[in-house]
Design brief:
Elements: H1 2-76, H2 88-96
Helix pairs in contact: 1-2
Length: about 110
């Protein structure tokens, strides 16, 4: 009787072990696929961040170039030689958008 119980318990543990091994194989495959998917996703995120950063730098360079052009145009106008060396942004605000219709002196 004790021998039958021992064999029965051994059989139950054997079946449980086989089920556990069968479940580990798909889990390993899924873990490998997940690691690969994670690497691909991180690469895409980093790529997008680099694109965003490069666009910002390009926009800043374009704005600086536009400011330089405006400053050069202002310095090329009559009386523009005495324009002090300031921040190009402040020169744009103070001189570039001057409208004669809103000046105090009559021009006509």
């Amino acid at each position: 009787m004790i021998i039958w119980i021992i064999f029965g318990l051994g059989y139950v543990f054997m079946i449980i072990n086989l089920i556990m091994e069968a479940m580990k194989a798909p889990a390993r495959k899924a873990a490998k696929k997940w690691k690969h998917a994670e690497k691909v996703m991180m690469a895409r995120v980093i790529e997008e961040l680099m694109i965003i950063k490069s666009r910002r730098e390009q926009n800043q360079q374009q704005q600086q170039q536009q400011q330089r052009v405006v400053v050069e145009q202002l310095q090329g106008q009559p009386g523009g030689e005495d324009v002090p060396d300031q921040d190009p942004g402040s020169l744009i605000k103070s001189h570039a958008f001057r409208n004669e219709a809103y000046t105090d002196s009559p021009s006509r």
